[in-house]
Prior knowledge:
The protein is of the alpha+beta class. The chain has 9 helices and 8 strands. α3 packs across α4.
Amino acid sequence: MFTHFFIDRPILSSVISLLIVLAGAVSMSVAPIEQYPDMSPPQVTISAIYPGATADVIANNVAAPIETQLNGIDNLLYFYSVSSSSGNAEIVVVFRSGSDPDINQVNVQNKLSQATPILPQAVVQQGLIVDKKSPSIMMVISVFSPDERYPSAYINNYSNLYVLEELKRIPGANRSSVFGSPDIAMRVWLRPDRMAQLGIGVNDVANAVKSQNQTFGIGQLGAQPAPPGTDQQYVVTAQGLLSKPKSSRTSSCGPTRRAWRACASRISAASSSTGATTRYRAA
């Protein structure tokens, strides 16, 4: 019935169609329309590095304290963490759709500051990164040596210094990162029995390694006052090293008193000339 009504009156149908088009055009200029609507809830990622630590150590000492503080954030849906044996920890915090990503990042940063005093000092020194990004991967690039000339440590270091910086300059790829810990780290296994004999603890070993892992500026070559004709200046740096203590020697002497005295006299004479510290024990 209605079909025949509009078919028999084409002018009326055209006018109605024009009115519908005009109403739609006016609505488009007024109605809020997003070019890229939110298809997924906003996410904030916390990244931490604990060089030399295992996945269990990172999960218990880094991820767990941070997750405890994250409870109760406004517009929070859920969060999860991923810890790897390469020393990396990543905590993804997911918020409700429609919430402001900037406000969510500020709230996560405030909660993270409450957990910072509980975290290991090595993690705090490496720095904690809070960014409003999704952990989804868009592309994976593999860097390798076809003829196996270079080891993996060399390739990782080269990729971190040169390839990664070039990728970040590409529009839309400024979130590029290297899988695993980009910096070279060393894991030191300690012998408790030997440490007990020497009377040292874990902090002593850590402080010794830390003191040797520093670079000091010790001066310049060609700086003023310099002789006439000096055109170049060079900065001299040195790697921090522990001062080697006096050598400690343990000697075995005979079981008799005469042999003991003779052996001790010889060792004492040799030690006085070299400045060494000598300890004696009965054979």
